[in-house]
């Protein structure tokens, strides 16, 4: 049996932390390894516990989830994946956290099974969380900031085709079927897209696609 995915939970409300811990530890393939009450605790906890995923509130009093994501990526070798939790789906803080390096988000009202699945998806890094919700956030907050980044990446025509379908939330298998390619070929293209964009995962690549205008949040 493989080792469980380890999770660090960070939220300033103790009752919320307790509930999240109960949900995560009820899953045989997930395990809580620590808790924190503010983003200021994230770096030392990650350094000591080396979790696979940080499940973190986006709004906290001292250092919020946005700053904590930035610190993790800037100051940590092989940083864990970050899944932010939020009360409101259409929140500028959530979009800022995704731009700062979070791999996805989940609502605090999500069902336990949805939360567990979101952690698994982020841990794998091979799928995009809630593309429709990210599309709405991009439409509200993107502001065309990524055009230069995409131009500098010099993606090939095929890589642009793949990126468009990634932005639509298509899996590698679905992209392969759309483009009449093998799944392994699609995986290679996805890897090239991430490398050229300097994106840590699919979520970061998709944000670049929206911000560049390659993909319209409205369609």
TrEMBL record:
<feature type="domain" description="Response regulatory">
    <location>
        <begin position="6"/>
        <end position="123"/>
    </location>
</feature>
<dbReference type="GO" id="GO:0006355">
    <property type="term" value="P:regulation of DNA-templated transcription"/>
</dbReference>
<dbReference type="InterPro" id="IPR000792">
    <property type="entry name" value="Tscrpt_reg_LuxR_C"/>
</dbReference>
<keyword id="KW-0805">Transcription regulation</keyword>
<keyword id="KW-0238">DNA-binding</keyword>
<dbReference type="InterPro" id="IPR001789">
    <property type="entry name" value="Sig_transdc_resp-reg_receiver"/>
</dbReference>
<dbReference type="GO" id="GO:0003677">
    <property type="term" value="F:DNA binding"/>
</dbReference>
<dbReference type="InterPro" id="IPR039420">
    <property type="entry name" value="WalR-like"/>
</dbReference>
<dbReference type="GO" id="GO:0000160">
    <property type="term" value="P:phosphorelay signal transduction system"/>
</dbReference>
<keyword id="KW-0804">Transcription</keyword>
<feature type="domain" description="HTH luxR-type">
    <location>
        <begin position="148"/>
        <end position="213"/>
    </location>
</feature>
<protein>
    <submittedName>
        <fullName>DNA-binding response regulator</fullName>
    </submittedName>
</protein>
<keyword id="KW-0597">Phosphoprotein</keyword>
<feature type="modified residue" description="4-aspartylphosphate">
    <location>
        <position position="57"/>
    </location>
</feature>
<dbReference type="InterPro" id="IPR058245">
    <property type="entry name" value="NreC/VraR/RcsB-like_REC"/>
</dbReference>
<dbReference type="Pfam" id="PF00072">
    <property type="entry name" value="Response_reg"/>
</dbReference>
<dbReference type="InterPro" id="IPR016032">
    <property type="entry name" value="Sig_transdc_resp-reg_C-effctor"/>
</dbReference>
<dbReference type="InterPro" id="IPR011006">
    <property type="entry name" value="CheY-like_superfamily"/>
</dbReference>
<dbReference type="Pfam" id="PF00196">
    <property type="entry name" value="GerE"/>
</dbReference>
């Amino acid at each position: 049996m493989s080792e469980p995915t380890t999770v660090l939970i960070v939220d300033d409300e103790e009752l919320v932390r307790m509930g999240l811990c109960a949900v995560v530890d009820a899953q045989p393939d997930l395990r809580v390894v620590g808790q924190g009450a503010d983003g200021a605790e994230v770096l030392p906890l990650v350094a000591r516990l080396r979790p696979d995923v940080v499940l973190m509130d986006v709004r906290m009093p001292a250092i919020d989830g946005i700053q904590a994501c930035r610190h993790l990526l800037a100051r940590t070798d092989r940083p864990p994946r970050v899944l932010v939790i939020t009360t409101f789906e259409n929140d500028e803080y959530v979009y800022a956290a995704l731009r700062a390096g979070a791999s996805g988000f989940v609502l605090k009202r999500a069902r336990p099974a949805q939360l567990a699945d979101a952690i698994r998806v982020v841990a794998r890094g091979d799928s995009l969380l809630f593309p429709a919700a990210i599309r709405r956030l991009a439409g509200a907050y993107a502001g065309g900031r990524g055009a230069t980044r995409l131009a500098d990446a010099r993606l090939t025509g095929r890589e642009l085709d793949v990126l468009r379908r990634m932005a639509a939330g298509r899996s590698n298998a679905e992209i392969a079927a759309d483009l009449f390619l093998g799944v392994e070929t699609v995986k290679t293209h996805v890897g090239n897209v991430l490398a050229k964009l300097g994106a840590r995962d699919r979520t970061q690549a998709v944000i670049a696609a929206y911000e560049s205008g390659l993909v319209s949040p409205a369609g």
